[in-house]
Amino acid sequence: MAKHRKFNADRFLDKFQGQEHLIRAYVRKFEKVNLEVAGLDVPGFKEFLVRDESEGKDELVQGLYQAFDLSTEHGHEALLAVCQAWPGFEPDVDGKLPVECLSLKVRTENEDAFGFAYARNTLWQAERFTIVRGKSARPIADPAAAAERLREKLATIFKIDKKSERVIIRHYTEGNRTNFVIYHERQTKAELTFAGTKARLKVAPTVLRPAQQDFVSYDRTTGQVEIETRFEKEEASIRSAFAECCLEDATFFDDGDAASRIDFSRIAAPGFEPRVGPRDRAALVALRFSLPQAFEPAFEIRSKNVLATLDNNHLRQHLAAGRIQRATFKITFPDDARGKRVELSGTNSVKFNRATHADEVFAYLEDWGVLR
Fold first, then answer.
1. Where do the domains of the chain lie?
2. Are 327 and 350 within 8 A, CB to CB?
3. Would you tell me how many other CB atoms lie within 10 Å of the CB of residue 84?
4. CA angle 115, 352, 237 (to 5 degrees)
5. For the segment 12-44, what is each residue's pLDDT rounded down to a tens digit?
6. 57-69 and 99-109 are packed helices; what angle lies between their axes, rounded to 10 degrees?
């Protein structure tokens, strides 16, 4: 699921020194909030957040959380991409606003554009997802209409399964992919706690704010869908509903072989090595497997190079495809010295942070043959 940084509201609001008019414009949107907007400055706004209990404050604070969520490098990219594609909307003509100020300005002036930027950013954060290949390469005829059908279908499903029919779906197309971000269940109350001296207030959340978010990314050129959900049962429900509402075939992903996307036999093959380009590096760094012996021994090996470790301990020749449960590769790119950990498990579960180099990771997995 999408992860959320600790909200340092103190540091966030300090970015508005000299840009107080953006805070005033934002506050004006909340008519029920008891706050004098004229002359409002950053210290005064912090004091309000600490002391005020007026109706409408929770909604105001929620918007601050959302603006903070996009105050990152990738959030900035999402904001710029959406604003550049939005006809007649140029919130930062000179390109000089810090991302915090730009984020709140877009949230104030164009909630639809902000919502799409937020959806793009949350999809980038998806880490654990299942991959299923459909019957054929098939486009989604009308993504907007399909999204509405999907929303209605999921509302019906969730009303029965979760006693909640509140579903919001945002979708956008990027290249060959159509992406859907699904928000459902009730949103948690955005509560703040304060610590520090009166002169220097520090803000921290006690409860994270978003509703549950699930992700669907569909490639029309391959018929492949990637889905991230919190629970396996919900993944199956969303996959079936997506096939019915967006591809007009509820059985589109029901082929028994469609879900078998991972091939661990490649790792067990003699001479297997995760080869990469001259500037990249890759290694198998974790492997869980069992041996076909009495008592069913199972092993979990973690090493900077699992394949070499297996060779050193004369275990590699005992590997069998059906005995491998999980494998983790570490791929290092020139601009990512920490490396990207890619975990494969089951028949179609892949876990890694897709914020960067996602296409390269998939290309390597397919080139190695571990992803069909």
1. 9-124, 128-246, 265-368
2. no
3. 9
4. 65
5. 899 999 999 999 999 999 888 878 888 899 999
6. 130
